[in-house]
Amino acid sequence: MIVEELKLMHYRNYKELQLQFHPKLNILVGENAQGKTNILEAIYVAAIGKSFRTNKDQEMIKMLMKNAYIKVKVNKLTDKVAIEIILSKEMNKKIKVNKLSLTKHGDLLGNLNVVLFSPEDLKIVKEGPNERRRFMNNEISQMLPKYYYTLNQYNKILQQRNKILKDYRGKRFDLDIWNEQLINSGAWLIIYRRNFIKRIALLAKLMHRKITEGLETLEIQYDSNVKVKDDDELRDIKINFSNKIEEFKEMEERRRLTLVGPHRDDLIFRINGLDIKNYGSQGQQRTAVLSLKLSELELIKGEVGEYPILLLDDVMSELDAKRQNYLIKNLKNIQTFITTTMTEPLNIKNGEEHKLFKVIDGEVSIFSSK
Ligand SMILES: Nc1ncnc2c1ncn2[C@@H]1O[C@H](COP(=O)(O)OP(=O)(O)O)[C@@H](O)[C@H]1O
Ligand SMILES: [Mg+2]
Description:
Elements: E1 2-11, E2 14-20, E3 25-29, H1 36-48, E4 67-75, E5 80-88, E6 94-97, E7 100-101, E8 114-117, H2 123-126, H3 129-143, H4 145-167, H5 176-211, E9 218-223, H6 234-247, H7 249-255, E10 266-271, E11 274-275, H8 276-279, H9 282-304, E12 309-313, H10 321-329, E13 336-340, E14 355-360, E15 363-369
Helix pairs in contact: 3-4, 4-5, 5-6, 5-9
């Protein structure tokens, strides 16, 4: 898929902006704090419905303004889609697809697929399990809107179950009905996650091996809180889930918190057998995330039938020349947006078709186009 056009009004530091993009390579060059990432963020919001930088939609509205507007025109293999997002300080955000207002925001998912790669993504391998669950949630939701709805449902049940545990004052209480609901939606999350990780792990292993020229083997393992095997069916997972809840019953009453379920899942990344969270070098961690991101491109292609767009925010300078080359070479059929502060950017010298934009203080001009 290709993003043909972006329009912004009162978005971040943009008063008004209209850009036509190159179908292959788009490079946004500028000093810090000029508005490069804001452009990627706007495209991301049009794809996912929320920012990757903030949970507060209002932050994206230009200072002193009441509303912000994003419009993205997408060209897909089979159709064209126009996505509009209206952010407001007074109302909930509005999302329109081909001029129709969506009643459920989740219905936006799948209209525009993106893979984002930013320095923040290093957190997926370096930081706590929250980051890895966020990664799974975002990526699976994009490919499978059903997952998004199940996750929302699970989180609501979890909240209510936690509230009941919190209010527990030594009286008898009955969690059965909540347990059943927790298990019903939780077991689906576990199945979706297991299947997703199985597939992406395989792709990432191949990718990582190629990038490291056969020196490193990357393994990604789903470390689920309720244990699940490769061939477990929904029924098996529900039984395991239920047994584990039983096992943790007393501890939950003591801690007044739901301790069992996919909200406690994790992933393990290993290179040549060693957990890279603790034992990987910075370079290995970066390459692992690069492999992961490139795998997502392939996974989405397999799932939705065409490549997503790729947003690379400030990552080029962090990769060595070899990795940069590998990346650019692998992106021939994928529309890519790159932000960089480098004045002489990247490996586009060898005749790659592209459009290069200069970004200065919320104004964008075309620098060169080929
Ligand atoms: N809601 C907002 N209203 C006005 N300006 C904003 C808003 N949010 C961020 N900015 C401005 O946007 C700029 C940062 O843009 P960003 O795209 O992150 O920069 P970079 O070019 O470094 O990627 C900063 O100058 C910041 O003050
Ligand atoms: Mg930036």
